Amino acid sequence: MKLIIAITGATGAMFGVRLLQLLQDTDIETHLVLSSWAAATIQEETPYTAKEVTQLADYSYSNKDLGAKISSGSFQVDGMIVAPCTMKTLASIRIGLGDNLITRAADVILKERKKLVLVARETPLNDIHLENMLTLSRMGTVILPPMPAFYNHPDSLDDIFNHIAFRTLDQFNIHLPEAEEKRWNGLLKSKGITQEQIL
Ligand SMILES: Cc1cc2nc3c(=O)[nH]c(=O)nc-3n(C[C@H](O)[C@H](O)[C@H](O)COP(=O)(O)O)c2cc1C
Question: Which amino acid residue places its CA nearest to atom 22 of ligand 1?
Fold first, then answer.
């Protein structure tokens, strides 16, 4: 399997970094593009440099390189994840702008009817954001805001990064062994209490 991973300049750079870390020890080939604002948020929010993050991927490309192989539908990939995805990149994808490698690769994914998952991050959302998301969703794009869950009792930010990464990879039927232990298994089953006892 081959996946394009793009990281854009929304807060939550670790959501993209964690995907790359999890996929590093798998046979899934990763093709990475960072926007220039992603490089800034990686530097600001994570213990890594942008260069270290590019080294987690099998292949990486400049966002300016519109001639890279992932800019063409003839290069076969299984899908693309943008994590985190800014409202700017989401808007550009919605209108088919293709002015950088991230938006061009996403445009190719859509025209080739492959899977596109946008880990869209902004809050609160205005009408423009919501309309762009709805249009993309109707085209088959998965809008996956990085919302933490609490039923799995996260102990740390690390647990939250993992949870979002696992849910994102679920979209491609990639189920890593470490994801399985934290799945929802029915209300209060872990405490041995039945629903009838609390309602
Ligand atoms: C620290 C930081 C956090 C940001 N967080 C967000 C965010 O959560 N969502 C968003 O849409 N834009 C956010 N932005 C603004 C984007 O970086 C900006 O719109 C930029 O043009 C996006 O370009 P890109 O999509 O090519 O990365 C943030 C900017 C900075 C510096």
Answer: 9
Instruction: Output the residue whose Cα is nearest ligand 1's atom 13.
Output: 10
User: At 149, which amino acid appears?
Assistant: A
From the CA of 38, give the closest atom in ligand 1: 27
For the stretch 11-69, pLDDT in tens is 999 999 999 999 998 999 999 999 999 999 999 999 999 999 999 999 999 999 999 99
Give the predicted TM-score (pTM) of the model. Answer: 0.95
Q: How far is the CA of 146 from the CAs of 59, 81, 101, 164, in angstroms?
A: 25, 13, 23, 6
34 strand-pairing partners: 7, 62
Q: What is the 3-state secondary structure (H, E, C) of 3-37?
A: EEEEECCCCCHHHHHHHHHHHHCCCCEEEEEECHH
The atom number, within ligand 1, closest to the CA of 100 reads 26
CB of 136 closer than 8 Å to CB of 93: yes
Distance of CA 173 to the CA centre of its chain: 14
| Ligand 1 atom having least distance to the Cα of 44 | 1
Residue linked to tokens 């994590």: 83
Q: Residue 161 C-alpha to ligand 1 middle, in angstroms?
A: 19
